[in-house]
Design brief:
Molybdopterin biosynthesis moea protein, domain 2; 15 helices; Aspartate Aminotransferase, domain 1; 462 residues; 18 strands; four-stranded antiparallel sheet; Aspartate Aminotransferase, domain 2
Length: 462
């Protein structure tokens, strides 16, 4: 017997169905056969009683309503193609083929892919670089106002907040400026799904501060499986119907119930998470206090450091950014030491810092393990006042070609004014922010920057 599921959580309903005795003459092909460690028992297709993500009316709609309530959003959508699917849907929903758009240069490659799909004419906002670390600072309201005034035909503004490193922008002011020009504000909040629930980084939270479409990766900072994310729609400028249509385009027609059930479980955890987030904040503050004893390494915006020193609007303490500037090792070397000597695997390493990603699922013991390791390593390091390990991020010159234009041309080198035109994206991954995009010129500054990254043992991809 197939159970009625409307009043149950998705995860509960899937488990009950797996025990119902119904034989699966339907996809997937494993027929819920058991295999240690894999959740075959709850991996189903859109059978009777289990709704359809693309036209949610029952149990999946209930999960999305939970999400709306928890995030204080007008409309929320489950994403099982990561934040990438949401970004692609958002941009293609608000901008027609060939339209103009304003994006922060430090946006993720999915933003660029969306622009290329619609042959959008991109106008950049360049964030300033922090003079101490080289990290991109907050996108300022003034820079947004200047770009909007200069390119008034742009349909949308896209920024990332928080960034991979935890830098938060003033979304309230930025959204007011965007709306005054009739532009939709899309916030890539992939690294900030937890922001709505954390007092220490809620300032600049995009949903409550006027962003029209917010895309958040649930799996990055909340307890949900990899590839799960959420899209929040709160706009009178954009068409919700068109956004929903684009979501159907960029999400699979066979959504994973395993992934969707993990979103449902995540929402249940968030429903009773106040104590978890309070403990999380206490752990981070305790870690910050301990970081004051470091003599050579320093933790961005922790210990004796503050967001004000760097000119950030705000900062997410959940991103522990361990800076190696002015020591005798670089970021990649520090990550290697943490991995081999202390069995600690960090999120990413860059030329002069390492990022340790944290969440409510990290224990006090785990924070202590990291702090003790850094304290021991710190004592072995020597201060080294030398040239900074970061370059100023180059601002590539544009050719007369848009990225989409190059797709129709023969696959052979193209030069403009004697300089090679890039036909591909080049980026260090992570974080996946393009150094250069198709249609930009590969001049000496770009080559020097790429060689610098490689010399610091970073992986540069194209």
């Amino acid at each position: 017997m197939i159970p009625l599921t409307e009043d149950k959580s998705l995860y509960t309903a899937l488990n009950e169905y797996s025990k119902s005795g119904a034989y699966p003459f339907h996809m997937p092909g494993h027929k819920r056969a058991l295999y240690p460690g894999l959740p075959y028992n709850i991996d189903i297709t859109e059978i009777n009683g289990f709704d359809d993500l693309h036209h949610a009316e029952g149990i999946l709609k209930n999960t999305q309503k939970k999400m709306q309530r928890l995030f204080d959003s007008e409309y929320s959508y489950m994403l099982i193609n990561g934040s990438t699917g949401g970004i692609l849907a958002a941009i293609t929903a608000v901008a027609n083929y060939g339209d103009e758009i304003i994006i922060a240069r430090n946006c993720h490659k999915s933003v660029y892919n969306a622009c290329e799909l619609n042959a959008l004419d991109i106008h950049f906002i360049y964030p300033e670089q922090d003079i101490y670390t080289g990290i991109a600072k907050s996108i300022t309201p003034d820079s947004v106002k200047q770009a909007a005034g200069q390119y008034p035909n742009s349909k949308a503004i896209v920024i990332t907040s928080p960034t991979y490193e935890g830098v938060i922008s003033d979304i309230k002011s930025i959204s007011e400026i965007a709306h005054s020009f009739g532009m939709v504000l899309i916030t890539d909040n992939a690294h900030g799904a937890h922001q709505h629930f954390c007092a220490f980084c809620r300032e600049g939270e995009p949903i409550e501060n006027g962003s029209d479409i917010v895309i958040s990766s649930l799996h990055k900072t909340l307890p949900s499986l990899t590839q799960t994310a959420a899209a929040h729609f709160n706009s009178t400028l954009a068409s919700r119907e068109r956004f929903e249509k684009k979501l159907s385009v960029f999400q699979t027609s066979s959504p994973s119930y395993v992934l969707m059930s993990s979103i449902d479980c995540c929402m249940d955890i968030l429903s009773n998470s106040k104590e978890l987030f309070l403990r999380y904040e206490d752990d981070l503050l305790r870690f910050s206090t301990g970081a004051k004893s470091l003599q050579n390494l320093h933790i961005l915006c922790m210990g004796n450091d503050t967001p004000q020193v760097h000119g950030f609007f705000a900062f997410d303490l959940g991103k522990i950014v361990i800076c190696t500037e002015n020591t005798d090792i670089n970021g990649t070397a520090l990550s290697q030491i943490l991995r081999t000597r202390y069995n600690i695997e960090t999120e990413m390493s860059y030329t002069n810092y390492v990022i340790a990603m944290t969440s409510i699922c990290d224990s006090e013991k785990a924070f202590g393990l990291l702090l003790n390791a850094l304290t021991e390593i710190d004592k072995t390091l020597k201060p080294k006042k030398s040239e900074k390990r970061f370059f100023e991020i180059p601002r590539p010159h544009r050719s007369s070609y848009k990225p989409a234009d190059l797709n129709a041309l023969p696959n052979e080198p193209i030069y403009e004014n004697g300089i090679l035109v890039s036909r591909q994206y080049i980026y260090a991954y992570p974080p996946g922010i393009p150094i250069i995009i198709p249609g930009e010129l590969l001049d000496d500054n770009i080559y020097s920057y790429i060689e610098h990254l490689k010399s610091e043992k970073l992986k540069v991809e194209s």
